[in-house]
């Protein structure tokens, strides 16, 4: 039992030391991994900070670009305003705008008539609704009157039936009107009928009370009939009033119908005039458009260029926004990954702390068990060593006896040898021989007994020697085990102290890691706030860009409309000029034909030659005038236009093409007569 306990204690100590070494190695590896994770999280935080700085710089660049775009927008607006001022000056000096003003007056008259028609239509609709309401109320009143008349007829029929069977009593109420008398009679008849039906057998004693009750009921019935008659009179008066209103409304409707027909005729007349004016305007616009197509094309090209530039700027800005959004998404992903890594490190730190706590508990239990076993071994070893010493002494005593006996036998043999060699003993040889023989015989017997005893003691000696060797080995092993246990106890003490120190170090590292994790979380929150700010700024920028584009488009459209109107005016003017020139050409050609017809053949040769000379003089003049007019019509630039300086033109238009066009126009207008 003691040997098994010792072996169990040694195995437990060895296992405990081995497990403690493994746990310490694991803890160290976990600490190294945690330190690496902390370093990686710090590196990621640094990269995120750098990216935030880059995004801030990019936002500043975007703001600068926006400011530049706003400045360009303001410059373009100024140029457009200056260009509008130029066109206004051109329009102020233009001639023959009466047709346009007449058209505007016609449009205003039409709009007024349309508004009046709509107003009258609304009035007609309201009047119709009122008529419908009055008709509905009248129908309801008529139904109510019919119902009341039916009730009165039924009461009359009932009264006639009752009067044939029962004699009515006189009423005590003094009314002069026949209607009240009629009502009282009907009420009395109803009361008698009720009395005959409900109270057929009445005693004579209760006649007075019964008469009083009948009188009270008759008075109530009279009052009800009187109120009903008043209601009927009121309803009849209301019917008459509504009939008058209906007649007035019908008269008003007839007047409105007449006004509507008059307005319809006026509207038809005005619409026919408008159609004619629109046809004339369309014809004039066609003539003007044929003359000013080149200018319109140039302006359209300029507008297209500006629109393309705006679209390119918008596309570039959208690309920048897309890159910003992509970077923002990447930052969010990295922030999420960093948060997940921090959560994992926290979870691992908590697990490692729990595992360290459990391992420390287990090591403390193993240490206490090893101390208990060592104390037990120390208490048991002195008793075992004393027992072994006693066994050794007990086994050494027979060994000493046998060795002493061997020594005595050996001494006797030597003495006998010396006695045999001695010369004095030669005389006593026979006696000695006999004695020798006797002694030899005795010695042989004793030697045989001794040899037998010796042979019997040899295995015991061997066994004792083996036991002695085994015991000495056991003692040495126990001494070594005791020394080892002392060394192990010291090592365990050192390890426990080291584990406590390592635990303190790990606790400090865990605290530092937790603080770093909190700092990283705070930084992540700050990064999230920055990200939200970036999102809000991006939204604001996108909204500003969209509003800017929308305003630019609206502004360009609003600018194009007055320009188109002005161009139409110019086209009308040019079409009028063309018509005048064509009329002049036609008149000149007719004059030439008439001159050719009226030349008589009967005249003299001189007159013929004179007429031919005059005709030949007139023909080239007319042809020259016709050619000049055709050239003016073909080249509308030669028409008189307002004068303006080249500095103004250079300030308004930026492109070289526009400047060249306006310089050509300016030179032609200056050279025009």
Largest sheet: none
User: Can you write the helix and strand succession as a string?
Assistant: HHHHHHHHH
Radius of gyration over all CA atoms, rounded = 71 Å
- In terms of DSSP E residues, the strand content is under 5%
> Uncertain spans, ≥5 residues at pLDDT below 50?
95-103, 165-188, 194-205, 423-428, 600-623, 632-659, 668-673
Question: Overall 3D geometry?
Answer: elongated
On the 0 to 100 scale, the average pLDDT is 66
Structural class call reads mainly alpha
Our count of helices gives 9
The amount of helix comes to over 70%
Beta-strand segment tally: 0
> Gap between N and C termini, in Å?
143 Å
Region (Disordered): 162-183
Organism: Elaeis guineensis var. tenera (Oil palm)
Keywords: Coiled coil
Coiled coil: 24-137, 225-327
Describe the structure.
With 673 residues, this protein is an all-alpha fold. Among the domains are: 101-293; 575-671, no CATH class. Helices cover 92% and strands 0% of the residues. It has helices spanning 2-92, 98-165, 178-198, 207-291, 293-421, 429-597, 605-634, 646-652, 656-671. α2 packs antiparallel against α4 (207-291), α3 (178-198) crosses α4 and α6 packs antiparallel against α7. The chain is elongated. Mean pLDDT is 66; it is low at 95-103, 165-188, 194-205, 423-428, 600-623, 632-659 and 668-673. Residues 24-137, 225-327 form a coiled coil. Keywords: Coiled coil.
């Amino acid at each position: 039992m003691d040997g098994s306990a010792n072996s169990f204690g040694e195995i437990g100590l060895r296992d405990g030391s081995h497990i403690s070494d493994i746990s310490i190695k694991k803890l160290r590896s976990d600490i190294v991994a945690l330190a690496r994770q902390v370093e990686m999280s710090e590196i990621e935080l640094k990269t995120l900070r750098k990216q935030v700085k880059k995004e801030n710089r990019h936002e500043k660049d975007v703001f600068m670009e926006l400011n530049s775009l706003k400045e360009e927008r303001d410059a373009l607006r100024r140029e457009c305003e200056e260009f509008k001022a130029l066109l206004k000056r051109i329009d102020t000096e233009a001639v023959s705008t009466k047709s346009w003003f007449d058209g505007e007056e016609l449009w205003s008259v039409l709009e007024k008539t349309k508004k009046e028609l709509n107003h009258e239509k609304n009035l007609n609709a309201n009047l119709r609704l009122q008529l419908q309401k009055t008709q509905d109320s009248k129908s309801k009143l008529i139904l109510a009157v019919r119902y009341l008349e039916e009730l009165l007829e039924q009461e009359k029929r009932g009264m006639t039936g009752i009067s044939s069977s029962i004699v009515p009593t006189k009423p005590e109420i003094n009314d002069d009107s026949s209607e009240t008398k009629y009502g009282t009679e009907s009420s009395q008849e109803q009361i008698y009928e009720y009395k005959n039906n409900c109270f057929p057998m009445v005693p004579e004693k209760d006649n007075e009370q019964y008469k009083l009750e009948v009188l009270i009921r008759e008075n109530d019935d009279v009052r009800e009939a009187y109120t009903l008659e008043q209601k009927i009179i009121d309803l009849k008066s209301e019917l008459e009033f509504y009939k008058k209103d209906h007649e007035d409304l019908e008269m008003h409707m007839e007047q409105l119908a007449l006004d509507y027909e008059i307005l319809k005729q006026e509207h038809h007349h005005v619409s026919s005039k408008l159609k004619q004016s629109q046809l004339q305007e369309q014809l004039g616009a066609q003539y003007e458009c044929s003359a000013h197509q080149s200018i319109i094309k140039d302006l359209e090209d300029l507008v297209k260029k500006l629109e393309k530039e705006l679209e390119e700027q918008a596309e570039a800005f959208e690309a920048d926004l897309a890159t910003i959004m992509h970077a923002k998404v990447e930052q969010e992903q990295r922030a999420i990954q960093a948060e997940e890594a921090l959560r994992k490190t926290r979870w691992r730190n908590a697990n490692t702390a729990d595992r360290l706590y459990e391992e420390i508990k287990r090591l403390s239990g193993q240490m206490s068990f090893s101390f208990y076993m060592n104390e037990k071994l120390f208490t048991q070893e002195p008793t075992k060593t004393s027992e072994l010493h006693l066994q050794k002494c007990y086994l050494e005593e027979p060994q000493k006896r046998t060795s002493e006996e061997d020594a005595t036998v050996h001494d006797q043999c030597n003495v006998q040898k010396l006695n045999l060699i001695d010369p004095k003993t030669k005389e006593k040889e026979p006696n000695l021989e006999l004695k020798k023989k006797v002694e030899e015989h005795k010695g042989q017997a004793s030697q045989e007994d001794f040899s037998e005893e010796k042979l019997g003691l040899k295995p015991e000696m061997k066994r004792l020697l083996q036991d002695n060797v085994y015991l000495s080995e056991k003692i040495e092993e126990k001494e070594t085990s005791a020394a080892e246990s002392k060394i192990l106890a010291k090592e365990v003490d050192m390890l426990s102290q080291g584990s406590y120190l390592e635990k303190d170090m790990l606790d400090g590292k865990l605290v530092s890691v937790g603080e770093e994790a909190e700092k990283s979380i705070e930084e992540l929150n700050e990064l999230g706030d920055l990200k939200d700010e970036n999102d809000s700024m991006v939204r604001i920028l996108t909204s500003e860009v969209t509003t800017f584009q929308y305003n630019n488009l609206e502004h360009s459209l609003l600018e194009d409309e007055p320009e188109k109107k002005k161009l139409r005016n110019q086209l009308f003017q040019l079409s009028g000029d063309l018509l005048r020139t064509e009329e002049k050409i036609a008149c000149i050609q007719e004059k030439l034909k008439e001159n050719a017809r009226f030349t008589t053949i009967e005249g003299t040769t001189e007159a013929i030659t004179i007429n031919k000379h005059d005709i030949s003089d007139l023909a080239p003049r007319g042809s020259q005038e016709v050619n000049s007019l055709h050239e003016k019509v073909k080249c509308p630039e030669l028409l008189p236009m307002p004068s303006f300086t080249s500095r103004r033109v250079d300030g308004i238009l930026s492109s070289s093409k526009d400047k060249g066009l306006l310089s050509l126009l300016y030179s032609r207008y200056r050279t025009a007569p």
